[in-house]
Amino acid sequence: MDLTNPFFKLIATVMQEEASKYDYELVALSGGQDAAKQNNQMADFVAQGYAAIFLNPVDSKSAGEGVKRAHDAGVPVFTFDVQVTDEEASKLIESHIGSDNYQGGRLAGKSLMDITGDNGRIAILSLPRITSCILRVEGFKDYLREQRSSLEIVAELSGEGNRNDGYTVTTDILQSHSDIVGIFAINDPSALGAYSAVVKAGKTDQITIVGFDASPAGKQAVYERKLYDSPQQFPRKMAVGTVQAFIKYLEGEEIPRDNFIPCEHYHYVDSVKDESRIKEQW
Q1: What confidence category does residue 33 fall into, taking pLDDT thresholds of 50, 70 and 90?
Q2: For the chain, how many structural domains are there in total?
Q3: Are 42 and 66 contacting, i.e. CB atoms less than 8 angstroms apart?
Q4: 126 forms bridges with which residues in the sheet?
Q5: CA dist 24 → 32, 45, 80, 81, 161 (Å)
């Protein structure tokens, strides 16, 4: 979990509030996009006798090491947002809750087809080491294929999920593919970085950007027509659901192994009177 990202900062805050209702203290640490660091953090939690670990993997496969260590020590692991893909470790996760990222990617595909008139060349800003982002891209591509879209994907590069890399990668794409008409970015920070590159290139009338998250910044960008759509995630539901899964686990109740929350379109018409946008909230 990257606590510099408002999405995860909110999740941590809501988890802390929800856990306190049951007299638990929740300690949130940032993995810093470093898989080894995150595995060490999990090892520390185990050594210090924590009751459970709520995990958002920095790397979906590498996180398996920490999960196995926790399981061997009898510490249950619950994942949120991003799933663990290590085959052995994934079977040890008590429960996962996250957005239906594949379905959200399909929403993004529909939006880009609609706004471009399903005509032209497009680019994707991905983040291929994270399962949630992989699923968004898969959903996006599958929707285009199933609809027999005429849109042609001419570039797919990692924007690393942040503004700076989103800007740099989009700048590079525009140098090679100056005629693109649309960009799908796997989150709002990379989408807003892409928008800055499009502005610098003087192509805002030519290129439409679809992000993902409907973060406070993303909602405002939709309202300002910088982004056409930002399929909405619901981090509060994710945070509360993770804590509730842990409590049910303690009480011996059956909990679903996977709980996926559907995403929703977030267009300009949704933004106009949206109180959460006005209050800069998720």
Answers
A1: confident
A2: 2
A3: yes
A4: 158
A5: 25, 14, 18, 22, 32
Q: Do 156 and 93 lie in a common domain? A: no
- At 68, which amino acid appears? K
| b/e code 46-67 from CB counts within 10 Å (16+ = b) | beeebebbbbbbbbbbbbbbbb
The average pLDDT across 59-72 equals: 95
Lowest mean pLDDT among 4-13, 79-88, 245-254: 4-13
CA separation for the pair 144, 153 (Å, rounded):
10
Q: Is there a contact between 185 and 194 (Cβ–Cβ < 8 Å)?
A: yes
Residue 95: domain span: 6-99+234-261
Q: Please compute Rg for the chain using Cα positions.
A: 19
Angle made by CA atoms 210, 215, 221, in degrees to the nearest 5: 55
